[in-house]
């Protein structure tokens, strides 16, 4: 098979050639866009799931849909220990520019940009030297007395209100998309919930779409108890067999090639239906196939190559971030679950390692902060990366 024509695309956040199994989420977002544009109340949206299920790709698709509907749209990726104010300013600046094309009153656009600039400048520390002060690149004077108090919760409500009113002027809305939302600082999570709550009460046309790990609902509810009712949660999981087969067959058929049914069985067994793994194994199988169609033998020959690639780029990069104590904890989880994608009891981990539970808390908390594990339920811990336990046992 010609490697140049290989249609598969394993990569972080890279759109697969066939976005299978996500039609329900895309159609639901279409409804949100239409309802908000008509002044109907709608909740903001949170996408949750393990790594490798396509949350980032889906965020990109939702952003494209918003833009096609004439909305302003901005996207950011939250980072640990990084305040929200600066990246949020850049994202909303992009959204306002989208709206400015359709707005008939340049003065009104500049007014909102002035509020945004005032909000952004509060990212600078009061004692920062002039050469170290960040400038947001907004070519209007900063407004005064609006979104510039320094209290992120107050400022975010005021900023969202201004931007939403601008969108209402042109009969559309604004979509703010936040990836890795579990990495936001606690005060920023609180401010975001408060701002969404204020907007939902007023029916303002601004929607926040977040994406993150399975424990995002717990992160939000720990900040604001009403967040359980404030957002609509959608669990993004591995693909059903029919959709997984479509993700493989559709791009192959577009290249006027084929794949045998037994090879599809083998690809599904190897990938577990996880979109990232489907792309990795599909790419390796195409490259390994000497001729059309792809056979089960081709998949078997390609599997070690795909696994080697995943071991370096998907699993290994995360494992290397863990300290020796954290690796010991991870391996104990893998051995207790026998490499299956299921939670392990925190008490069981302590017993297995012959340690007191309290002595393992620092390692567990650090792994959670690094995004390698999450609290699946009270007293249980699970890997954020599918097949990670299997990788650890193979590595050991």
From TrEMBL:
It comes from the Bacteria. This is Cytochrome c domain-containing protein. Keywords: Heme, Iron, Metal-binding. It comes from Amycolatopsis umgeniensis. GO terms for molecular function: electron transfer activity; heme binding; metal ion binding. InterPro entries: AAA_16, Cyt_c-like_dom, P-loop_NTPase, WH-like_DNA-bd_sf. Residues 168-357 form the Cytochrome c domain. It holds the Pfam family AAA_16.
């Amino acid at each position: 098979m010609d490697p140049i024509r290989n249609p598969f695309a394993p990569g972080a956040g890279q759109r697969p050639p066939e976005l299978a199994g996500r039609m329900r989420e895309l159609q639901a977002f279409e409804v949100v866009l239409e309802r908000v544009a008509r002044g109907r109340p709608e909740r903001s949206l949170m996408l949750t799931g393990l790594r490798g299920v396509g949350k980032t790709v889906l965020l990109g698709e939702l952003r494209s849909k918003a833009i096609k509907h004439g909305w302003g749209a901005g996207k950011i990726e939250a980072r640990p220990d990084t305040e929200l104010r600066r990246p949020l300013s850049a994202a909303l600046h992009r959204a306002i520019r989208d709206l400015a094309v359709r707005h008939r009153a340049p003065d009104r656009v500049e007014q909102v940009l002035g509020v945004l600039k005032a909000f952004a400048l509060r990212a600078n520390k009061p004692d920062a030297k002039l050469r170290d002060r960040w400038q947001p690149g907004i070519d209007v004077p900063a407004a005064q007395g609006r979104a510039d108090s320094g209290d992120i919760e107050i400022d975010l409500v005021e900023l969202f209100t201004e931007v939403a009113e601008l969108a209402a002027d042109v009969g559309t809305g604004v979509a703010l998309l936040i990836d890795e939302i579990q990495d936001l600082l606690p005060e920023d999570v609180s401010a975001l919930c408060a701002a969404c709550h204020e907007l939902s009460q007023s029916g303002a046309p601004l929607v926040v779409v977040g994406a993150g790990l399975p424990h995002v609902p717990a992160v939000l509810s720990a900040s604001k108890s009403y967040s359980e009712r404030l957002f609509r949660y959608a669990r993004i999981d591995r693909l059903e067999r029919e959709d997984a087969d479509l993700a493989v067959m559709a791009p192959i058929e577009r290249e006027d090639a084929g794949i045998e049914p037994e090879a599809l069985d083998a690809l599904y067994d190897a990938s577990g239906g996880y979109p990232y793994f489907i792309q990795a194994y599909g790419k390796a199988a195409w490259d390994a196939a000497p001729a059309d169609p792809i056979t089960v033998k081709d998949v078997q020959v390609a599997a070690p190559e795909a696994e080697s690639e995943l071991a370096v780029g998907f699993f290994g990069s995360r494992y290397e971030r863990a300290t020796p104590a954290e690796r010991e904890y991870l391996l104990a989880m893998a051995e207790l679950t026998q490499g299956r994608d299921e939670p392990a009891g925190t008490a069981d981990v302590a017993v297995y390692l012959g340690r007191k539970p309290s002595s393992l808390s620092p390692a567990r908390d650090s792994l959670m902060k690094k995004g390698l594990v999450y609290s699946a339920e009270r007293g249980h811990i699970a890997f954020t990366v599918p097949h990670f336990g299997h990788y650890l046992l193979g590595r050991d």
